[in-house]
Amino acid sequence: MLTKDLEDFKAFSRKLNAYAATLKFHKFDRESVEQVAKNLSEEIDRFVGLYPDHKIIKELALELKSIYIKAFYEKAEINL
Question: How would you classify residue 8: left for phi > 0, otherwise alpha for psi between -120 and 50, otherwise beta?
Fold first, then answer.
């Protein structure tokens, strides 16, 4: 069971990383960065929905949102 959970989490993580790599924004445009953050948050929710009974993914989703969104703002050099 734990092996399956870890494999599912790896798949979830790969999907999320692949999606995040496609996101584009204008570095000095707060609205552009906010739109990327919104899109990323919605996509994470969608990915979580693919694994409705997966405790690890559900528990880490909020933290992953925060990590990714913070990284986009830092890359854009915009304060949260």
Answer: alpha
Long-range Cβ contact pairs of 59-65 (< 8 A, separation 24 or more): 60/9, 64/16, 65/40, 65/41
Pairwise CA distance, residues 39 & 20, whole Å: 10
Q: What is the pLDDT of residues 31-65, one digit of tens each?
A: 998 999 999 999 999 999 998 888 889 888 889 99
69 in Cβ contact with 41 (< 8 Å): yes
Rounded Cα distance between 27 and 20, Å, is: 15
Residue 6 near residue 45, CB atoms below 8 Å: no
The tokens describing 74, both together, are 């830092």
pTM: 0.79
